[in-house]
Each structure stands twice: as structure tokens, then as C-alpha cells.
């Protein structure tokens, strides 16, 4: 009998309906025996987890009560299918038994909690679209008081949050056992580039922190404390990020400064090893040179000037970065971060131009090449270099513009907040004076 059950699970693993019917012909009660004797999982659990849709349909037709059977982790086949993103299997299971979606698992979590934890947005959408009153499932809480929205915000799942906001009747300001709303979870989480989108979605749904009331009679001090606490947490995380970035930027600046100094002292093509003032006949040469002078300066006078201008810019800009980082200036301020970003942009662009000019000088002159293939190869090299220079400069310019716009917006927002805080403080003083 155990051998037959083993064969049944092998059929479920392979999704073989033929093997299933062969076993049923041999033992018509084999599915009933599995329900009675199995303490871990049923063949439906296995087939659902592996996504064998046809096998799942056949099992449900033969034994529909298997849909709500629990495995050793107290999960139904629907939960397993959701955790693996088997949306087609989920549709079959939900059609057979929609109430299976409302069963809770360990920790009081429902199937939507599981979908968020496993990053299965499509599976979550299938469940929400299949059950009646989906808001009840969305607003359900686990043993820690967390709703699906709490988990989605904690995991920074932007698209999931947007979808949950569209369900309707979602308790966006539900408080968990720690007294935190979804907005509190966001403000106390590690800073992320997705935070602004999440905050916008929550605010559009009228989400706020747990200490902020929706009525207009809320004392200003409560709102101020809430903002200060959230801002303090963000500034702490930002400070940690800055320390890490400062060290990395210092290393990069020192490395580029070293490279710029080396190629400045020893340019491409090298230096003349001896003086050449007289030719073999003892006559003055029209273009004399001396030992230690750059060969590049004589052979490529125009490129030589541009090369050293770019190299000097890279060196000075790198040294400027080092100086700013060790000077103790308040780098937490946006204006200094913007200055650092601009200088870094200049350094990278200047060193890229140095490379392009160096490659141009060490590549043989087209007019001196007799082989046509070599000439075409040289033309391709020069063309690629020119294209890359234009693309690079354009990209850096776009980044500079984007960061400048971003900094301008932040400065405007800061000015509004400062003005608003000053106005509120003045109004508070006026109200006290009236009282």
C-alpha cells in the first residue's frame, strides 16, 4: 500500500493523469487513503506547487475536498500555488473552493500576506479578483497586527501598494501592535529610492503617521513631534549612507588624481631621451627637441594642448574633492552634495577625454598608412571614439541637469516648509496672545 501511495505522489510530481487513473483502477480508494494516512501533504499540494494545471483539475473532479486539506505547515494547495506564483492553478482552485482563500496560516497570516512575502503580485491580484468583499481580506491582520499594506510598505513593493489602494475600503491608517501605520513603517524603514512613490500613494489615500489626526483641531506640537521623529530617523540613515559614500568617493578621487599625475608626468608616446639640435651634417634642425620633453608635444601639438588641459582639470577637480571631503564642510546639505556631484562629473568627463586624446595620438596617422585595411581600421577607431565622446558628454549633461532640477525642487520644498513652520509659529504666538 505504501508503494502505491509513493507512485501516486510520483504521478503528482510529473503531472501524469494517465498514471493517476492506472492507480485508481488498481485501488479506487487510494485518494481516500491518502487523506487518512498523510500527515505532510496530499498529491494536490504537490501538483499545485509544481503548476500541473490539468492534474489539479482531475484531482479536484475526483476528490474536491482535497482543496481545503492542510499540509504539515497548515497550508492549503491554494497557498502553495500562490507562494510559487502558479496563477492558472490558483484560478482552478478558487473556482472549486473560493473560501479556501480566507483560511489563515501560521502567525495569523492569510494568503495575501503570503503573496506579499513571496513577491507574488499576480497571485495577489488573482485572489483579490476571485473573492467576495476583498477589502476584508486586505484589511485582515496577522498576530503582529500587520495588514497586507504594512508588509508591502516594509518590503518597498510599489506596484503592490498601488494595486491595494485601488481595491477600495482599504484601511490605509490601520495601526499594528507597535502602534504604527503604513506611513510610520515607511518613515522608519531604511531610506530607498522608491520611498517617494510609496509616500505619494499613501498620501493620495489619505495615509498619515499614527500621531497625526485627520481633523483640523490637532495640536501643532503633535504634528511637529511626529515630523521631527520621522525626519530624525531619515537623517540618521542618510548620515550612515553619507559616511559610506564619503569613504568610497575619497578612494576614487585619490585614484584619479594619481592617474592624472602619472600621465601628466609621462604623457602618451613618452619623452625624448636625448637632445636633437643638430642633424647628421651638423646643421641646426628646423624643429629641435631636448631630452625629457614630450614626444606628443612635437608630433601632435594641437592634441597635446587639449590633452593637458583635460588632464589638469581632472587632477585639480580630484584634489578639490579630496579637499572638500577632509575640510569638515556640512555635506548633509543638498548644496554641498550638489557641488560634489558636479565636481565628480567634471573629473570623470575630463579623464574620459584624456583617454580619447591619448588613443588618438598612439594610433598611426592615416596619411602614413599604406595598407588600405589599416586606414579603414584607423578611421573606425577614430569614429567610435568621437561617437562615444559625444554620447558620454550628452549623458553627463542630462544627469547634471536632472540633479540640478532635483536640488532646486528640494530647496523650494525646504523654503516652503521653513516659511510654513515660521508662519505656524507666529500664528501660535498670536493665538496665545489673544487668549
From TrEMBL:
Keyword Repressor: no
Gene3D superfamilies given in the database record: Ankyrin repeat-containing domain
GO cellular component annotations of the record: plasma membrane
SUPFAM superfamilies xref list: Ankyrin repeat
Coiled-coil ranges per UniProt: none
Membrane topology listed for this record: Multi-pass membrane protein
Compartments it resides in: Membrane
Main location: membrane
Domain PGG residue range list: 240-361
Residue stretches spanning the membrane: 307-326, 338-359, 379-402
ANK repeat residue numbers: 39-61, 73-99, 144-168
Keywords assigned: ANK repeat, Membrane, Repeat, Transmembrane, Transmembrane helix
Protein name stated in the entry: PGG domain-containing protein
Organism per entry: Perilla frutescens var. hirtella
Amino acid at each position: 500500500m505504501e508503494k502505491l501511495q509513493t507512485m501516486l505522489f510520483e504521478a503528482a510530481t510529473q503531472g501524469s493523469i494517465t498514471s493517476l487513473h492506472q492507480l485508481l483502477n488498481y485501488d479506487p480508494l487510494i485518494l481516500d487513503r491518502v487523506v487518512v494516512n498523510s500527515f505532510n501533504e496530499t498529491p494536490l499540494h504537490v501538483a499545485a506547487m509544481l503548476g500541473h494545471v490539468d492534474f489539479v483539475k482531475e484531482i479536484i473532479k475526483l476528490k474536491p475536498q482535497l482543496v481545503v486539506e492542510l499540509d504539515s505547515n497548515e497550508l492549503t494547495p491554494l497557498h502553495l500555488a500562490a507562494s510559487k506564483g502558479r496563477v492558472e492553478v490558483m484560478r482552478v482552485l478558487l473556482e472549486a473552493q473560493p473560501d479556501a482563500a480566507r483560511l489563515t496560516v501560521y502567525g495569523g497570516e492569510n494568503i495575501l500576506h503570503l503573496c506579499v512575502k513571496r513577491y507574488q503580485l499576480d497571485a495577489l491580484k488573482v485572489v483579490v479578483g476571485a473573492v467576495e468583499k476583498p477589502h476584508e481580506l486586505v484589511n485582515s491582520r496577522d498576530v503582529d497586527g500587520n495588514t497586507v499594506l504594512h508588509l508591502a510598505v516594509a518590503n518597498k513593493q510599489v506596484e503592490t501598494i498601488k494595486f491595494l489602494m485601488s481595491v477600495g475600503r482599504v484601511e490605509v491608517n490601520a495601526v499594528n501592535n507597535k502602534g504604527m501605520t503604513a506611513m510610520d513603517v515607511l518613515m522608519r524603514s531604511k531610506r530607498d529610492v522608491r520611498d517617494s512613490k510609496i509616500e505619494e500613494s499613501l498620501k493620495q489615500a489619505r495615509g498619515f503617521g499614527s500621531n497625526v489626526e485627520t481633523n483640523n483641531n490637532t495640536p501643532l506640537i503633535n504634528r511637529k513631534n511626529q515630523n521631527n521623529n520621522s525626519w530624525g530617523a531619515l537623517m540618521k540613515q542618510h548620515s550612515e549612507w553619507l559616511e559610506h559614500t564619503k569613504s568610497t568617493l575619497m578612494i576614487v578621487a585619490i585614484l584619479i588624481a594619481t592617474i592624472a599625475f602619472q600621465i601628466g608626468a609621462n604623457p602618451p608616446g613618452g619623452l625624448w631621451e636625448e637632445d636633437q639640435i643638430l642633424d647628421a651634417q651638423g646643421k641646426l634642425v628646423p624643429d629641435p627637441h631636448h631630452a625629457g620633453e614630450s614626444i606628443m608635444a612635437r608630433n601632435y601639438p594641437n592634441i597635446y594642448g587639449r590633452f593637458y588641459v583635460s588632464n589638469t582639470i581632472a587632477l585639480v577637480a580630484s584634489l578639490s574633492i579630496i579637499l572638500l571631503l577632509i575640510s569638515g564642510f556640512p555635506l548633509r546639505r543638498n548644496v554641498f552634495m550638489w557641488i560634489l556631484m558636479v565636481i565628480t562629473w567634471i573629473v570623470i568627463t575630463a579623464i574620459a577625454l584624456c583617454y580619447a586624446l591619448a588613443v588618438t595620438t598612439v594610433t598611426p596617422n592615416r596619411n602614413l598608412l599604406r595598407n588600405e585595411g589599416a586606414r579603414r581600421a584607423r578611421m573606425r577607431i577614430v569614429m567610435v571614439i568621437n561617437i562615444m565622446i559625444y554620447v558620454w558628454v550628452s549623458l553627463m549633461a542630462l544627469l547634471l541637469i536632472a540633479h540640478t532640477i532635483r536640488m532646486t525642487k528640494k530647496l523650494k520644498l525646504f523654503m516652503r516648509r521653513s516659511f510654513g513652520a515660521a508662519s505656524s509659529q507666529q500664528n501660535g504666538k498670536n493665538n496665545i496672545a489673544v487668549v
